[in-house]
Amino acid sequence: MKTPLSLLALLLNFVLISGAWAGGPWHAASQNTAGWQFMTPDERIEHQRRMRGFESYEECRAYQTEHHALMAERALREGVELKRKTESGCEQLRQRGNLK
Description:
Blueprint: H1 4-22, H2 41-53, H3 57-77, H4 89-95
């Protein structure tokens, strides 16, 4: 069993690492991925891998449109209206210079 002090140290490390990731590569998360709550952990990993793998904005948008439709369908089955994210992951990648 971990002691409260070791748990606090672990939490502090996580916070520090999270700050370092902020300037790192784009990552999928609930704040920037439509339908995050309807994806399995494996789907989330695959989504992030695919998003990072695109070279063109058009490829990214085509995938994102397909992904949003799938997530909207899953949300509808759960009786939930899928809210659109204000900023597109593809747009974020383009602004960072990752997409042509």
